[in-house]
Design brief:
This protein is mainly α. Helix content is 71%, strand content 0%.
Length: 138
């Protein structure tokens, strides 16, 4: 029993010292087994970490809604005023900006944005209806 205690007291500090010496960085390349062990430990740590989904920022949603309303009003005024220079180009550019804002709003609201041609009125209408069904107004 005494020999086991003496052996433990003699071996334990040596093992501890060698582990600490291995932790000190040196100029030598890192052994492959340590790299594999580090990769495995990192994978385990990723699995154990809690992933908390951040709730959407309500002020960002409000900002997008305000911008949607402003661009929609701009498109309406362009459509109503026949004397505007380069009216068609301005309407097209404003509608494309409106479509980009709709896509941003859809991503905030959790609406799937489908692939479509730029300026597709059917997709624009679908996105508007989906956003309105989720309580968005502009």
């Amino acid at each position: 029993m005494v020999w086991a205690m003496v052996l433990t007291l003699a071996v334990a500090p040596a093992v501890l010292f060698s582990l600490l010496a291995m932790a000190i960085p040196s100029g030598r390349p890192v052994p492959a087994w340590r790299l594999r062990l580090a990769d495995r430990l990192e994978r385990v740590a990723l699995r154990l970490r809690h992933r908390h989904a951040m709730p959407p920022d309500p002020f960002l949603a409000l900002r997008v809604q305000e911008r949607l309303g402003a661009v929609a009003n701009h498109v309406r005024t362009l459509e109503e005023d026949p004397t505007v220079y380069a009216r068609a180009e301005r309407i097209i550019a404003s509608q494309l900006a409106y479509d980009e804002l709709l896509a941003e709003a859809c991503s905030l609201a959790g609406v799937e944005v489908q692939r479509h041609a730029k300026g597709d009125p059917a997709e624009r209408f679908r996105e508007e209806v989906e956003l309105a069904s989720r309580g968005w107004t502009w």
